[in-house]
User: Fold this.
Amino acid sequence: MLTSPSSSGWLRLVLLAGLFGAASSAPARPPNIILLLPDQMRASAMGIAGNPDVQTPHIDRLARDGIRFKRTYANVPVCCPARAMLLTGTYPHVNGMVANDLRLRESETTIAELLRDAGYRTGFVGKWHLDGGPREPGYVPPGPRRQGFDFWAAYECHHQHFLPYYFRDTPEMILVRKYEPEASADFAVEFLKGRKGEQPFFLMMQMGPPHDPYGAPDDYMKRYDPAKLTLPASWQPNSENNPGGNAIPPKYRRPDTPGATYVRTGGREEIAAYYAAITAIDDQVGRLLQTLKETGQDENTIILFTSDHGDMLGSHGMRRKRKPYEESAGVPGILRWPARIPAGREVDTLFSHIDMPATLLALAGLPVPAHFQGTDLSRVALGQTTAGPEAVLLQIFVPFRPDGITTPWRGIITDRYTYARYENAPWVLFDNRADPAQMKNLAAEPAQAGLRGELDAKLGALMAQHRDAWSYNSLELVEEGARLYGKKTYYTIAEYLADPARDAKAGK
Assistant:
């Protein structure tokens, strides 16, 4: 892990940017950076993506003011591995976060540490989910477990969307009687307004919704009539059946607590609630944009809007994430920087989580560490090219039966195809050009044997390039039954398996 920056770090950054800015791609003045990450938001759930129902005027504005990567993917479409990739610029088999609820090693070098050491003020708000062990209470003390972030208003992991709680620099829980995106935005605005002088900042804001359980405040829910939604051709009703109910945990219910409910799952209601939550998030995006404008920071602030993974929501009869399908692996990919990124562009360049840290550092005029495994796509963002990676590597290392994943898998997305396989057998193959809804699985068709062979070879080469191997997988059900977050913290699956008291510690 990098050491704390010297007091002259920011001054050095300013001097270097001024010296080399005219002769290189480095900006004349270090830009601020904001990474916005709602949880479980699929790429198609935006007006700018052609969705006729969801209302996202501020997110759409981000895209119109900058560039939208139409083909953006979560390499590992599940929470903790995705978040670790966004911080470290490395795949989970390298940084160790191959499953939910492990702890990210303090020895990892993160983009927050790199920016802090370059003189940036760093801040984190919202859902952290990288500290491992018990999710509650969820206090992460100041120091190396915060991975380079100084300003802190966060929680480890909860889905208490209507009554979220946070921690600052003491173990005292801060319970906020607001919908989680608004509560998180309160802290983000505090960070933005707390800027002193011209010191650049890096803010990561990770919101809980629209992750299940599905629900939003009544004024947002009233905007969506489930019966009038335009559902994708792949959607199937009753993929799951849960009646929903009161969204306030019993221990926090008070007579004056506003009513809040989660909707039933498996029907149109959950999609309406999902969209309502995204519109609530959208309002907070607008609020942050307004704050940047009011504080004079709008022009020189890079905003990256993405998500850790998508949500199947009954498409193909499937639930949630961990799948190679567009609804699960496809996420928003929007970059806005009024000072330098040309407005109003959309590209088909493949862009994925692994590329994002390198791209942000390069846009800021900082060197990309040699160990980062992604592609710097800053020149695409700046309008200088559309060339990018030939393929995206997808990975899932452990099973999770509630999501219908019983076997680890690997996959590849090219300019035309999505292909995923288990170690011993193909799983899915889609021609996204001829079949954008991914309705026809070609994996078992004899006529496609040649294509499968080509994609197998490309997948194998991509795995080898990034030092991935099937041996990194585990068939242990470590993500189920609170095994990794019952009562103890583990850094690796092997450490968990070597603990003779592991089942007792998890309460199983």
